[in-house]
Amino acid sequence: MSDDRWEPPAILLAVDLVILTLRDSRLHVLLVERGIEPYKGAHALPGGFLQHSQEGLVAAAHRELAEEADLDVETLRLEQLGVYDDPDRDPRGRVVSVAFLAIAPRLPEPTAGTDAADAGWHPTDRVLSGDVRLAFDHRRIVADGIERARAKLEHSALATAFCGPTFTITELQDVYEAVWGMPLDPRNFYRKIKKTDGFILPAGSARKAATGRPARLFRAGPREVLYPPMIRPVDSPNGKEPVQ
Amino acid sequence: MSDDRWEPPAILLAVDLVILTLRDSRLHVLLVERGIEPYKGAHALPGGFLQHSQEGLVAAAHRELAEEADLDVETLRLEQLGVYDDPDRDPRGRVVSVAFLAIAPRLPEPTAGTDAADAGWHPTDRVLSGDVRLAFDHRRIVADGIERARAKLEHSALATAFCGPTFTITELQDVYEAVWGMPLDPRNFYRKIKKTDGFILPAGSARKAATGRPARLFRAGPREVLYPPMIRPVDSPNGKEPVQ
DNA sequence: TTAATAGTGTCTATTAGACAATATGTC
DNA sequence: GACATATTGTCTAATAGACACTATTAA
pTM for the full model? Predict the structure, then answer.
């Protein structure tokens, strides 16, 4: 610990938010355009410093999201993603940032707030590929957030958080396909979802049909943890052969 | 973000360490006896404040571990466990703590360092049950660390980190049984482990036998991610609580 | 009717789980 | 020999994956 004359180090605490949503069956992340230096004009995750010593991290995250993107944030469930503390990650000095992850259903285009020149959804693949360049270490944070979402889709009912209050099983499959980045067999998916007790519940009668048979509607069920889990087809994990 | 006359809040950053090991087939956690207020004399996780503004979190964790428990810490791989930021968690003021998790093979009894009156291994069940009371919110942190270890045993080769350089399959099973807290069938376990390519590699010939047939020796293989995963028998699909 | 999507059924290869049988050491 | 633990084998129920088939709407 410390002796009595020890001087607390000057370290700033910040929060960064990875907000993911689905638009046109593609995974998108919420980015702002930075209005101040450093990285002025560059894209970045919403976020900022804790404002006073009693402010909680989650409270700060909600505040920044409201300030920068004017999103209705009450319904978002923030989950701790990790701490980013590379001493050189911010040119202003030592900034330790706690990243949060949240999943949003289809939301209206956010309006720019005060601090950020612009806020909007960007396809995650354009961020990961480097086509959209992010300030600080935010690309890494986005990558970590996506990987977390992929993993959580396997073991939790997180997928329903991407959907509105009611949804079809095909819409739910769209979520899995977009986040996992791979196609799934609709028939096996349907069977697996319906056999997982408490994952989804019937919600009224059928609806929707630009064409084809109308789909039944469901809503999120009480089950949070999926057991057995949804299985993410092997893309190429750590060197396992397709078949022995 | 901030305007130019904004005063940085006085927030202290700390690290806490959950070091788990196996002793007599029971899961143990490393605790120190606090030598200073608050909670002087109580058990607590090793940890402490960042000492200067350029010190990294992992570096601080290593330093504290060396100071307080005099453990050879070079081989420990620290993994971020989470951030604990309840404004009331420390009576001295606002202390935000980053917890790390590490798994240690059987280690010698640690010797007390300078800051801590005593350091030693304590069975985790006595911590979780409340028989051993911890300072601050450290009981919660230990619980989170154990749950993380349980989950990681399913999908990673973490179990080998509990073992020495070489081990038998039965010893590996002991790890799973102790961390998961449930018995496993040795024959099915044996088959499952051996069919997972790259999990373990043969290491010399047989050895060890107080009684019974000598077991073959193995060492950790290159595989880090287990696919398909080890399956934790369902005893209660305990839900994960949302991060506050 | 056709087109298009929703939903069901069926077969097969794999595997988790239960547990018998055999191997190899010490006493 | 008895005993204890390690290792292999075998049977069965469950299920992921592939895919044919039926159902229900709009045009």
Answer: 0.91
Phi, then psi, of B62 in degrees rounded to 5:
-60, -45
Instruction: Examine the domain organization and report whether B166 and B146 are in the same domain.
Output: no
Instruction: Tell me, yes or no, whether A191 and A130 share the same domain.
Output: no
> B123 with B206, same domain?
no
Q: What is the pLDDT of residue A66?
A: 87
Closest Cα in chain B, distance from residue A207 (Å): 32
Three-state SS sequence of A27-73? EEEEEEEECCCCCCCCEECCEEECCCCCCCHHHHHHHHHHHHHCCCC
B214 touches strand D (CB under 7 A): yes
Look at B49 and A2 and tell me if their CB atoms are within 8 Å: yes
Integer-rounded Cα Rg, in Å, for chain A is: 20
The verdict on residue B234 lying in a domain is: no
Do B216 and B107 belong to one domain?
no
Q: Does A213 contact strand D, using a CB cutoff of 7 Å?
A: yes
Residue A107 lies in a domain: yes
pLDDT tens string B183-242? 999 999 999 999 999 999 999 777 777 789 999 999 999 999 999 999 998 764 333 322
Domain that holds residue A166: 156-220
Closest chain B CA to residue A229: B231
Domains contained in chain B, number: 2
* Residue B220: half-sphere exposure toward Cβ, Cα within 13 Å: 16
